[in-house]
Amino acid sequence: MVMELRQLRYFVTVAEEASFTRAAAKLHVAQPGISSQIQRLERELGQPLLERSARSVRLTQVGEAVLPHARAALAAEEGARSAVGELTGLLRGRVALGAIPSCAVFDLPGLLAGFHDRHRAVEITLSESRSDVLFAGLRSGELDVAVAAYSGTEPPPGIEARVLADEPLVAAVATTDPLAAFDAVALADLRDRAFITLPPGPGIRSALDEGCAAAGFRPRIAFEASDPAMLAELARRGLGVALLPESAIGERPGELHGLELTRPRLRGCVSLVWRSGGPGGPAARAFLRYAVDTLTPGE
């Protein structure tokens, strides 16, 4: 069996894009060439890897089993090339970075630009998603490093982290809300209020769900939004109680009133995260070292 890395790269790209047309555009290769090479790969393996239809392309059961091995083979090739590049003083490779939407904990564009200035031969990609999706991407190898949120003091299993921000979560209400006359409120006293929060997942939403469970009730979610700025604006308009990091109140002086949450107290944590053992490629490891040194100087 002669299996070419080109065939594996075509297969992985089609699987990720769920389309031969989008894969061809991404790889800058003619679509018939991609189709032909994947068919050759399927003949060599003796099993179809993709289910083709007029509208979409899906992995077969065999394709799902082959995909992680194909990614590993491509990562090994990249690692070999990058190792040679490191020895010659010219770091090459790719870094796949993920981040939660509207991450205002630090200057992410500045971090990327600083690394690019030092390693111009490295290709960096950035994608935004929920923290649970980012954690899954790290475990599968689709992502090398991410900026994600989680509740509690420990990251999820299989994930290592460097904390960037850890602060109290507060109940944010409009300045005209009756609660604005108080500085603190027990979470149980909010059982009859409408909550404004993030969609289900780690981080703020998980902290809210766990806190309400400990207080003996299930929160009534009126609005969900992935952008904390949207949560703040909905609360400012008097549409409910938003759960936000304490620092978010200071960004809207005179527009929102933040109440300290008691019994239980809730905290939000945003961290630089990567899969246990570290990223696989030299370029990704170099980016992680740079990010840690830049974001947590002196540690």
TrEMBL record:
InterPro entries: LysR_HTH_N, LysR_subst-bd, WH-like_DNA-bd_sf, WH_DNA-bd_sf. GO terms for cellular component: protein-DNA complex. This is Transcriptional regulator. Belongs to the LysR transcriptional regulatory family. It comes from the Bacteria. GO terms for molecular function: DNA binding; DNA-binding transcription factor activity. It comes from Saccharomonospora marina XMU15. It holds the Pfam family HTH_1. The keyword DNA-binding applies. CDD domains: PBP2_LTTR_like_3. Residues 3-60 form the HTH lysR-type domain. Transmembrane segments: none annotated. Keywords: DNA-binding, Transcription, Transcription regulation. PROSITE patterns: HTH_LYSR. Gene3D superfamilies: 3.40.190.290, Winged helix-like DNA-binding domain superfamily/Winged helix DNA-binding domain.
